[in-house]
Amino acid sequence: MLLPMLLGAAWIILALAQPAAAGEDADTLVLPHDIVQRAASFADDLVLPDHAEPIDALTAPRMALLKPSGDGPFPALMLLHQCAGLNSAVAAWARRAVARNYAVLLLDAFSARGVTSVCYGPKAGVNLVRGAKDALQAAQHLRRKPFVDPKRVALVGFSWGGMVGLLAARRHYIDAFGTGPGFAAVASFYPGCFRIKPPGGRDYDLVGPDIAQPLLLLMGDADTETPAAECVDKLTPLKAAGAPVEWHVYPSTTHCWDCQQLDGRSKTDVRGNHVAYRYQPDVVADSERRLFAFLERRWARK
């Protein structure tokens, strides 16, 4: 639920006219590493949970490290929420993952920073690039756990978290933060693929040719908040050029199809689009199937 104005006033100071980084496609706008690092410095690093809990301990959505019974090593997912913060829909994905014998780091990028929403712009230094650093630090954190298989750590992001995932899947950002190899796979649910255009600042793209690991996007064709067509138009030439990306667009499916708490609600977004939310349990079930099939294909190649 994040829109192109997301990088607001704090980003104007980053409006430095520099060429694309070495190895980047000339048509892809990128932020040089020094700007990436500065952008992520506006908020302190998160304190990530060390102690693993059973899924039954998750009685309400919160930051938590969760694991199945047993010693593992388990594959692990880092789950990253939408622009309005951690909610019951994302917590439900944690339960699905643990039921499939995955460890889960349920990340809350907002609460410890006093943020409730970034849907209309960054708050307290929380922007997309800070989110990418959070995600990559979480991957590093998971790889160090004795019950986690360090070669099977994936990110699953939703809307804003999915856009963060697009950055965290790219070699440019992995290298900029120096937090290790990143994720073995990334899945983005209903992300935006906008070219970010901060007022008075430097434009940059979320999607680029430097996708470092398999990337899955799941989208709805009735999503007017983060339209699927904007992603498909950018991903098609990348896939044709050999990028490890795949996607599926669900017919008659809105933004946040897994968000039962938003069912029937609507709004006018910052771009003037009418946005409707419809909970669609059949799509939830199919997206669960597609997500874990994608991950199992990835693990089979490790």
TrEMBL record:
InterPro entries membership: AB_hydrolase_fold (IPR029058), Dienelactn_hydro (IPR002925), FrsA_esterase (IPR050261), Pept_S9_AS (IPR002471)
Biological process per Gene Ontology, one example term: proteolysis
Biological source species: Rhodopseudomonas palustris (strain ATCC BAA-98 / CGA009)
Domain named Dienelactone hydrolase: residues: 66-263
GO molecular function, one term: carboxylic ester hydrolase activity
Descriptive protein name: Dienelactone hydrolase family protein
Signal peptide: 1-22
Alphabetized PROSITE patterns for the sequence: PRO_ENDOPEP_SER
Record key words, sorted: Hydrolase, Signal
